[in-house]
Amino acid sequence: MGRPVYLDCDTGIDDSLAIAYLMAHPDVDLVGVGTSFGNIDAHRAARNTLDLLALGGHDHVPVAIGAEKPLSGAWNGGPAHIHGANGVGDVELPRAGREPQTDESAADLLVRMAHEHEGELRVLAIGPLTNLARALDVETALPYLVESVVVMGGAARVPGNVTPVAEANIFNDPDAADRVLSADWPLTLIPLDVTMEHLIEESDRATLLAADEPLPRALGQMLDVYYEFYVATYGRRCAPLHDPLAAAVAAVGATPVMAPTVQVVVDATDGPGRGQTICDLRGERVGYPVQPTARVRLVLTLDAPFGPHLIERLTSA
Amino acid sequence: MGRPVYLDCDTGIDDSLAIAYLMAHPDVDLVGVGTSFGNIDAHRAARNTLDLLALGGHDHVPVAIGAEKPLSGAWNGGPAHIHGANGVGDVELPRAGREPQTDESAADLLVRMAHEHEGELRVLAIGPLTNLARALDVETALPYLVESVVVMGGAARVPGNVTPVAEANIFNDPDAADRVLSADWPLTLIPLDVTMEHLIEESDRATLLAADEPLPRALGQMLDVYYEFYVATYGRRCAPLHDPLAAAVAAVGATPVMAPTVQVVVDATDGPGRGQTICDLRGERVGYPVQPTARVRLVLTLDAPFGPHLIERLTSA
C-alpha cells in the first residue's frame, strides 16, 4: 500500500486530472474524498468524483458531500464557461453504480480518516477550504493527527484568476482559508505562481484522446472547453495544471525547488483585496531569511516541467 | 526655459537626490515645491528642501508646507533608521537664508502653479499623496489644468516596503492615494517594481563624495545611513532610486519600456492589504489588452540602467 491521501475537491476539470493522477500513482492510497462547492456544486462534484473513481477502478473509495456555500455569505454558482455546465466539460461520464455517503459529511469523513491513519494522512485540498475549516471545528486536534496538508490556492507574485489579486479557491471562502492557513499543521501552498507555469498543450490532449483506457479519453474530451477558456490568458489552446500539480506535490511526484516558508495572511475583508493570499516575500533578494512566525511553505518553482510527467502517468496505466 | 515641473515631496534622502536631479536637468523649470509628512515631518521636509535648493542655486523656487498627517487617522513619525533623525541622513546642510511660504499651503501653491502654467505643468509626487488630494478638493478642475502627473508609489508584482504588499507613500495615506489615482488626469505610477531594480552603489557614493560642488558631496554623505538600511534588503551597501527615478520619468530623463495602462485600485481598508496598489495585470501573457476603464500608466521597466545616468547628472553641473 502507498501513502494514505485524503482529497477534498470541487470536481472540476483540473480536479478530474488530479483524481486520475492520484489513482494512477503507485505510491498513493486514496482513502477518502470530500466534495465542496466551487467549480460546481458539492452534490454534482460528488457525482463526478464517483464516476471518475469508477472509471479508474477505485470504486472502493468513500466519497462524502461537504459544503454547498462558504462559512459566511452566499455562493453564486460555478463557472460553466470554464468547467462546463456539469463541471466535467459537459462530457457524459459512465454513471458509477453507487452514491455518496449519506451518513457522514465531508468534514466528518476527513476527521475519521485522520484518526484511522493517525500520523500518516496527507490531506490534499484543491477546492475552497470550507470543509477543512469545518473539520478543524469538529476535531480541534486535527492538525496533530495528519501528516501534512497540501492546498492548491492563492497567488503570491502573480495576478489572481478571479480578481487582480485573488485566486478562486481562496476567494470562494476567505474565512475558511484564513482558518486553514493559520492552523498549526505543516501546510504547503501551491499558488498560481507555479501552477500557471506548468501547462498541457494540444499535443497532450491528442495523446489522451488516443489512449486505450476510457478515463484518459474522457479527460481529453473534457479539456476541450477548458483549453478554450484559457485562450484569453495564454493566447493559444492549452491549460495550466492547478490541481494535478498540487496532487503531485502531495504524492511526492513533483519536487519543489524554490519553496520558502513564509508568513501568509488571507485578506478576508470586503475590500478590493478580498481573497488575496498576502505572502511576505520581502526577503526574496537575500534568500528568504527565517520568519519566526511563518508556517506556510509556499511553492514557487518545481525542478522539472510537470505536464509531460502528468501525461505519462495518465496514459501508462 | 525648460518644462515647468511642480514637486510634492517629504524630503528624505532619495527625495534629496530627486531635487538635485531636477535642479541639474537643463530641460526642467522647477516652479514650486510642496512638502508633506512621510520620511520626515512636513516642516522639516520644507527646511531640508530650502537648504538643498540653496545649495543647488535654486533659491528662487517657492516652497510651501502641506499635510502633517493623512486625510484620516494619525501619523506616527518618520523612519529615522532609514532617513536619519533629520530626514537627510543626519547631515547638517548649510542653512538657507529664507523660510517656507507662510501665505499659502502646499495644496494652494500647486493649484496656483497649475493655473499659471495651464496645460503645461508636470506634477511630480514623491511622498504621500495628501497634498495632491487636497488640491483636487481646492480646485476641482485641477486634472484638466495640468499636463501630467508622475507618482512614485505602490508595488504591483513585488513585495511592499512597509507591509508585505504596501509601499510607504501609498500606505501613509491610502485614502489620498485612492483619490489621486482615480482622478481624471494622465497619471504615471512609478512602483517598487521598477525602482528596486535601479541602484546606486558604493562606487557611486565615492564619486559623489569626490565631487567639487557641495551638493553632490552632501548627497554622498547622506547615503551612508540609507545604504546601511538596505543591507538587509540587498545583502550589501547600496540603495534603490525610488524618487530620483520618478523625477527622471517626469523630466523625460528616463524612458519606460514596459508600461501598460491598467486598472489600479488602492486598498483603503483596515485589513492586511491596507495601502496596496491592486494592479490588474491579468493580461500580462497576451500583451496587456486594452482595459477600457484603466487610467494609470504603470511603469515596470526602463530602457537603460538609471544609476549611471543619475550620477553623471549630479556630478556634471
TrEMBL record, chains A, B:
Pfam families membership: IU_nuc_hydro
Name used for this protein in its record: Purine nucleosidase
Domain of life: Bacteria
Keyword Calcium: no
Keywords: Glycosidase, Hydrolase
Gene Ontology cellular component terms for the protein in this record: cytosol
GO molecular function: purine nucleosidase activity
KW Hydrolase (keyword) present: yes
Gene3D superfamilies reported for this sequence: Ribonucleoside hydrolase-like
Record PANTHER family: INOSINE-URIDINE PREFERRING NUCLEOSIDE HYDROLASE, URIDINE NUCLEOSIDASE
Segments forming domain Inosine/uridine-preferring nucleoside hydrolase: 5-304
GO biological process: purine nucleoside catabolic process
